[in-house]
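Hi again,

Forgot to attach this to my earlier email, sorry! This is the prediction with iron/sulfur cluster bound. I've pasted everything inline since the attachment limit keeps bouncing my files.
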Amino acid sequence: MRTAIPEEQRQQPGVTDAEAILRTCVHCGFCNATCPTYLLTGNELEGPRGRIYLMKSALESPHETSARTLEHIDNCLGCLSCETTCPSGVNYGHLLEDGRTRLEPFRRRAVWDRLQRALLARLLPQARLLRPALKLARLLRPLRHILPASAARMLRSVPTTSTTAQRATPGVHRPEGPIKARVALLVGCAQQVLGADINDATVRLLHRMGVEVTIAADVTCCGALTHHMGERVQSQELMQQAVDGWDRLLNDGIEAIVLTTSGCQTAVADYGHIFAGTDREAAARRVSAATVDISQFVMDHGLPAVQSMRQVRMAYHDACSMQHGLQLTQPPRDLLQQTGVQLVEIPEGHICCGSAGTYHLLRADFADQLQQRKVAHIEQIKPDVVVTGNIGCMEQLAGGLRERPILHTVQWLDWATGGPCPEVLQHLDPTTMSANALSRMDSTS
Ligand code: SF4
Ligand code: SF4
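Structure tokens for the complex follow:
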């Protein structure tokens, strides 16, 4: 793609990098075929090629950026399906990141939009604020019918319960027996409140593998949620804390930083790029290089002995951050199959479920359509259970999958290797499970 960026504009930080990305795009449009918002609308400007063109125009004449341009950029899920599809290797993710930050000052957001974004950017990264905020939101839920649609959607999305970690608390957690490896674990800002049982399952599984787990008290959020919202002030502060905290642990002999939230990992894996040219760059690159998804870590170190094979019909949902951001699709499938499950592929598995960090709260129309589309595809294959590697997808799909339990990969692996039965599987309606699965579960729960 040819560019005509004025010289004075080119002097600004990041512009030459963005221009280099723009020039790799050859307009072929292959990416449109796998873009969720293009599939929903058929609108060129709601597809990656159109958005790339809009970002190019915004770089060439930033003061002429229209509200429509900003709307189309806001509507992008950041799912990176287009990156997986692109034959020219266009780094759409970095271009979008640059575009969102650069265009935000031109945005004239409605009052509720500004308030909603500010609330999310401040509450989500801090478990100590998120917990009471969710309690308040539950109390306000009956008022949702008289609130604006997006406020109602936020209240509707509030989970009915919060969770508290029993094991995954700050500190060093040693396994029984010899220590084979030492890792740091990110318990996640929202995950601590919405899925602490995932973190507990992770600690149990790692202990069974002989792995010592450190949860750093000073790394509470990796900054991914606010980073993907384009809220750079908040995300920078959180990312700096994470880089400093984890780099100190790496210097103390930790061999890896394990994450169970692939949405976070795409940001942490990009720390080297985010801190490029700063005095934290070297530390950020060390942290990025040491980061690993739990499924890859377990695959590399070996799954503990499976206590009882569980022959259920299972659908594995690839989170976009996992399949497009990290290009990690096989390890979770291989591990799940080691527990005896029959994996069935979800049709159109490469398309986002609409969760995408805070997107499902900020862009409810598209998010709801994508949720329904994904749920319909899952219902088509009639799985006994659905498993995924990201809590955002779990929450999004749980809102649509009324009959089918959904849980995190690590919860399943923990149960299969000797952990307690996950709560979502404890009260299953027997008529929704295959006979084979039932007999296994009855004898092993
Ligand atoms: S990131 Fe996803 S939603 Fe955005 S343009 Fe690419 S494919 Fe479309
Ligand atoms: S597939 Fe790649 S090269 Fe083709 S239009 Fe999309 S981003 Fe550009």
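Residues 25-31, 48-49, 52, 82, 85-86, 88, 90 surround iron/sulfur cluster (ligand 2) (CB under 6 Å). The first helix runs from residue 7 to 10.

That should be everything now.

G.
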